[in-house]
Design brief:
binds fe (ii) ion, 0% strand, 256 residues, 52% helix
Length: 256
């Protein structure tokens, strides 16, 4: 997977970010290597239907997650999570229809919770530490992942999720920003859902303002830096369709 070199990182943004690239010194990741070997064709072809219509036409619809949303309302009030997480979940549901072999419940819950940890770190450090230098290795990034696991372990058991399931959720949350490779199909789908929300107009509006970028600059960078990071073909197709619609709507070819 290629690495972002500018503030339009696939993960969560901040103004004026100066994002360093992941280097070749990353330690070996046996699970990541095994997943890469199992799914050697990239982007991973979709065996199921791929819906490239605007994401607003298929909101997240699994009602059993409403109780989980209620349990993390506080965590949605940080860093735009109340926009980022529902849109990402809608994309996660779509991706699970395109990849029916994935454990959809796991993808959905991991996506819903993946950034809730930001509500439990010092917000002032998100910009000062989380977006300088080698951002994937910034302490604040690891902290939001660990705090997200803490949220999962706090809220999921009371909602009937098994201990084994909770740990599988945490395996995806822990490292979703800081580990450069996915370790499973479910991990990959969560990562793609985490990126796809940016291509929707709501994502562009929110994230470009976070970065202090005009929409044309931001969408250019989505095309050059985020599209190549997408792991699945379904996500690549959705991103291409959304980006085309968003560029037309926002007239980015003219207003630049
Ligand atoms: Fe994150
Ligand atoms: Fe995220």
């Amino acid at each position: 997977m290629s690495t972002p070199k500018t503030p339009v990182a696939a993960v969560d943004p901040a103004p004026g970010a100066d994002i360093g690239a992941v280097t070749a010194t990353e330690p070996a990741d046996a699970l990541g290597d095994a997943f890469a070997a199992e799914y050697s064709i990239r982007p991973i072809p979709a065996p199921g239907p791929v819906d490239t219509a605007p994401i607003s036409t298929t909101p997240a619809a699994v009602e059993e997650l409403d109780a989980l949303w209620k349990a993390v309302v506080h965590e949605t009030r940080t860093r735009g999570n109340d926009i980022h997480l529902p849109i990402s979940l809608a994309f996660a549901e779509r991706l699970c229809r395109a990849y029916p072999d994935a454990d959809a419940d796991l993808v959905r819950v991991a996506t819903l919770l993946h950034d809730t940890g930001w509500a439990h770190v010092d917000e002032s450090r998100i910009i000062s530490e989380g977006f300088a230098g080698d951002w994937r290795k910034a302490a604040i990034r690891y902290e939001h992942e660990l705090q997200g696991c803490n949220v999962a372990r706090r809220v999921l058991p009371g909602l009937g999720y098994s201990a084994e399931f909770v740990e599988r959720v945490c395996e995806i949350i822990d490292g979703h920003d800081t580990r450069p490779v996915a370790r499973s199909l479910e991990d990959a789908l969560m990562r793609d859902a985490d990126r796809l929300w940016r291509f929707d107009q709501a994502g562009i509006a929110l994230a470009s303002s976070w970065f202090g970028m005009d929409p044309a600059t931001y969408t250019d960078r989505l095309a050059t830096e985020i599209v190549p990071e997408l792991i699945t073909q379904a996500a690549a197709d959705m991103a291409e369709a959304d980006l085309s619609r968003s560029n037309a709507l926002l007239k980015t070819a003219v207003i630049r």
